[in-house]
Design a protein that fits this description.
2 copies of one chain form a homodimer. Chain A is mainly alpha-helical and 205 residues long. Helix content of chain A is 63%, strand content 0%. Chain A folds into 2 domains: 44 residues, Arc Repressor Mutant, subunit A; 134 residues, Tetracycline Repressor, domain 2 (Orthogonal Bundle). The first copy, chain A, is elongated and about 60 Å long. Chains A and B meet through helix 5, helix 7 and helix 8 of A and helix 5, helix 7 and helix 8 of B. The structure holds a DNA duplex (30 and 30 nucleotides). Chains A, B: This is TetR family transcriptional regulator. Chains A, B: Keywords: DNA-binding, Transcription, Transcription regulation.
Chain lengths: 205, 205
DNA sequence: CCTAAGATGTATACATCGTTCACATCAGGG
DNA sequence: CCCTGATGTGAACGATGTATACATCTTAGG
């Protein structure tokens, strides 16, 4: 891997494509993420990316998987190991904030049915799902963790999308945080009643 | 509008395009919805649709608006005027069922930031939003209707997306219904506590 | 050290797509 | 009756995803 004089070989085209795709997504939205644009930005011919990604969807899946991982670290940064309703609410706020800070990425992560052939992608989403379940179980040990974590995730996920679609007031981060906190706490008020409900319908991913 | 012998003029291309677009969406997903395919299916030249829709996005917006209206009637069919938590839960189940029965349409409705230039589209979404607010207010008269309706909508919307993404068990309608019902009731258990909360952060659309 | 094979990038080509523009055809009101 | 506006046609342009054949580099094994 010596950085030889030749510019024929890129060095790490795979990573360069991922970065370029990510940038294009944030700059021009999903429509701007074309394989050719990625190749141009990486300074490479139009077909070069095919050596590293089977097709456009594979690249998008890779970007989405990266997004999941970033979301996970973003959440743990909000609080490493939440164990109280307030700490859990802080994580929820971080989730919605991530969506608002990376709207195109967040949409790419959920725009299409998760391609099951991208094991990188399913692994990343499973990690998120498991993480949510774990911290909910830590906060409400006496409750059906599967049921509550699904409900919490759905609530927060729905809030994120409604904010993205402009259905709610997202003018300042404080307003968003207050809104998410209030909604999540409303659910938590009912959480103790959820122990052993008939909500066995949920299933972890 | 006499059905003259000539086939030159279609008669109602606008509606035909809408129908063709809708069919293509359900058959081949969002990727299959191309203007040219719509024109082909309507039996018309590739550029004819431009007489009725400014561009592809305008057509998609029209399809989305139709989807909102169908969703609204689907909800009212579940229950015309819900006023108890159980009736409200039935409407929630109908919401998620609609998403699962028309996945591509549902995604088209929420895939992109709602184009504010399509007044048909914003009107249709505002109608849904208002409807949710109204039935929540009818069921919980003593509660901050804006706050609770936003929270309920977010929960149900999130459940719909998690089901669409295969994150939850959607194997049978009964399982889905049980899951949605349980989640919604959990929230309702806390609803009485929401009167006059600090959740003035919400705003109707 | 040399060489052959695999990995990586290039060039070319094709079908499709969105969109524009000039033109053809039809319908209805002066 | 014909002229004007609405509607549909056709050819054309640039961009895109992708397949194929070819070029170049890296590196493992003799």
């Amino acid at each position: 891997m010596s950085r030889s004089s030749s510019t024929y070989h890129h060095g790490d085209l795979r990573a360069a494509c991922l970065r370029a795709a990510r940038e294009l997504l944030e700059e021009d939205g999903s429509a701007g993420l074309s394989l050719r644009a990625v190749a141009r930005r990486a300074g490479v011919s139009a077909t070069a990316p095919y050596r590293h990604y089977a097709d456009r969807e594979a690249l998008v899946s890779a970007v989405a998987a990266e997004g999941y991982r970033e979301l996970a670290t973003h959440l743990t940064q909000a609080h490493p190991a939440p164990s109280t309703p307030d700490e859990l609410a802080a994580v929820a706020v971080a989730y919605v904030r991530f969506a608002l800070e990376h709207p195109a990425l967040f949409r790419a992560m959920f725009a299409e049915p998760c391609d099951p052939t991208s094991e990188e992608r399913v692994a990343a989403t499973a990690a998120i799902s498991e993480y949510v379940r774990t911290i909910v179980a830590a906060t409400f040990p006496d409750v059906d963790a599967d049921a509550l974590s699904t409900t919490v995730w759905a609530l927060v996920h729905g809030l994120a999308f409604l904010h993205l679609d402009g259905k709610l007031d997202s003018s300042t981060p404080e307003i968003v945080a207050a809104q998410v906190t209030s909604a999540v706490h409303a659910l938590f008020n009912a959480a103790p009643a959820m122990s052993g409900t008939a909500a066995g319908a949920q299933r972890g991913v």
